Amino acid sequence: MYSPRPPEAATNEEETTLFEGRPALLPSLGALLWAVLTLGLYALYRLWVIKGIEYKVTTRRIVVETGVLSKKMEQVDLYRIADYAVERPFGQRLMGTGNIALETLERAEKHLNLREIKTDVVALYEAIRQATEVDRKRRGVRLFE
Fold this sequence. Notes:
Number of helices: 4
CATH topology: PH-domain like
Helix content: 25-40%
Strand content: 25-35%
Number of strands: 7
CATH class: Mainly Beta
Strand order of the largest sheet: 1-2-3-4
Radius of gyration: 16 Å
Shape: elongated
Largest sheet: 4 strands, antiparallel
């Protein structure tokens, strides 16, 4: 299991990777059950789906690349994140996966979801939250409600 690095390790000039990966092949008990019932066909479908999604979280931005044949890349700078949520449904908790939902200040992409990632999502959430504060201080940005 990958453990996220704290953002304090990065200097003001350095961008450090906190997490890089794809969604889990079988993220929940329901997915595992479907894979067993369909004799592995659902797992092949999931393999195709997850090969088309890649997440990269750094101390300055979050990049989500989607697509298998055609690619689409979305990027959100950390200082533009307004709210965070960790979602760990029971089936995902048993399989060691979880989701992080981010609300951003972007006009086009208001919501960004890191879904079904196999890592300690609470630690990754804390690392993103701390890195966001560090990036805001570095840029001199303040959020007003």
